[in-house]
Amino acid sequence: MSGFQWDWAFTWDVLPMILSAAKVTLLATLLGSIFAIAMGLVFALLRRSKSRTLRTSIYWVVEFIRSTPLLVQIFFLYYVMPEFGVGMSPLATGVFALGLHYGAYLSEVFRSGIDSIEKGQWEAARALNLSLVDTYRDIVLPQAIRPMIPATGNYIIAMFKETPQLSAITLLEMLQIAKIIGSENFRYLEPFTLVGIMYLLFSVIAAYGIYQIEKRFPKEGFSLK
Amino acid sequence: MEFGEIVSVLLQGAIVTIQIVAMALPLAVVMAFGFGLIRLYAPSPFKQIAIIYIEFFRGTSALIQLYWIYFVLPFFGITIDAMTAAVVALGLNIGSYGTEVVRGAIQSVPKGQYEASIALNFTASQRLWRIIMPQALVNMIPPFGNLAIELVKATSLVSLITIGDLTFKAKSLADTTLQVGEIFGVVLVFYFVIAQCLVFFIRRLEKHLSKGLGRGGIAS
Predict the structure, then answer these.
(1) d(Cα B114, Cα B102) in Å, to the nearest integer?
(2) Closest CB from A1, A168, A200 relative to B60
(3) By Cβ atoms counted within 10 A, which residue in A107, B158, B177, B218 is the most buried?
(4) What topology in the membrane does the UniProt record assign (chain A) (predicted)?
């Protein structure tokens, strides 16, 4: 039973490799969340469009993305897109898949955030003859953003925890590195446990960060100008 | 390969996927109720254990938990087959999210219900099972439904520990036939159909459980 005891020397050997792979994980999460927020806003605004056909089709697109596994979506994008002449690197595919998947979730957060603005605010904006863009920019979004922060943050943390799935398309993130180390040395205990601890650590820090952002955000809203 | 053959191979995978869901879901529900109630009512050391379980399984990714159970536990002399590892990992993972659903639903029952049951001299267990739980259960159904769909989606991860589920069959078919477009398209539709069936049953269940509670306006 070679792996029964924790080997500290081996732990210190593999830690630098796992830490350098953490950069790839964090990069994928960062780019993925930017893309997801953009996609979420697009979906949310299209769900409010005047055309009924557009609204229902976006509803089903979001529903479809949300109820199929991320792993299959990653495979789909990685293997099927090249058939249409769009070949992407594992990282780009991963960012695209994470962005699309969590964009669908975030669109619901944004939609309910926008819907939670009182009707009187919309009516006042109409009465003051503000254009649609001005209404969103100056009246609705400044008030809607703060209540959206906790849910958005939770989804970004959830996205972070899904990045190991990108190892399936050979992206060298933490779990993939741990698996390679494990199969080379035939010791899985230390690398997998280290990766688990890293994820726990990062998500606790991120959750604290989101709480701080929410706390610092002015309750009465802020100007986007 | 013909389209019909592809579908029939994928159907075999879908059956494995459904089997895993059928086994992991009861485990998740048991864990959710067990640790949810411990978290709420048990004395301190048990409560700490529940919090450690919840935070550990919610704070790390499902795939790492799966790998840990499948690759690391054998070194401790606990050898389990891939299927058991999959059911245990997914059940514990989804169950840890479920504890918060149970806790939230129980805490959302109005305080007057507790006070009234104390005033009527109910015992603690009567209060929980006869007054609080029937009302809390209805509140739990929609979030539990979402978790069930999360579970269906999470089963795709078991393909990475070589279980022949829907995703695994799709990946190996795609590697041999190169008809990636049809295969992954069909797989996405399969998962979507499984999830929508679950949604349908959950709605029925919710309707059934909320009978007689005077919710959602006038009953038709």
Answers:
(1) 17
(2) A200
(3) B158
(4) Multi-pass membrane protein
For residue B63, what are the domain limits?
Answer: 3-209
Cβ-defined contact of B153 to A67 (cutoff 8 Å): yes
Shortest Cα–Cα distance, B79 to chain A (Å) = 12
Give the ipTM.
Answer: 0.85
Instruction: Judge whether residue A4 has pLDDT over 70.
Output: no
pLDDT at A170 over 60: yes
Query: Which ranges constitute the DSSP H helices of chain B?
Result: 3-41, 44-59, 62-67, 82-107, 111-119, 124-126, 133-154, 166-177, 180-209
Interface residues of B toward A, Cβ cutoff 8 Å, are 55-56, 59-65, 67-68, 71-72, 75-77, 149, 152-157, 159-160, 167, 170-171, 174, 180-181, 184-185, 187-188, 191-192, 195-196, 199
Position A221 in a domain: no
Partners of A1 on chain B (C-beta within 8 Å) are 75-77
Q: Sort out which chain A residues have CB atoms less than 8 A from B187's CB and list them.
A: 72
Checking if the pLDDT of A95 tops 70, the result is: yes
Q: Are A26 and A171 in contact (CB under 8 A)?
A: no
Nearest Cα neighbor of A205 from A197, A216, A217 is A197
CATH, residue A71:
1.10.3720.10
Number of domains in chain A: 1
Nearest chain A residue to B182 by CA distance is A80
Q: What is the mean pLDDT of residues A138-164?
A: 90
Q: B71 and A192: CB-CB below 8 Å?
A: yes
CB B117 within 8 A of CB B160: no
Q: Which residues of chain B have a CB within 8 Å of the CB of A167?
A: 63
Residue A224 counted as domain residue: no
pLDDT in tens, B183-199: 999 999 999 999 999 99
Contacts of A3 in chain B (CB under 8 A): 72, 75-76
Residue bearing the bigger pLDDT, A209 or B211: A209
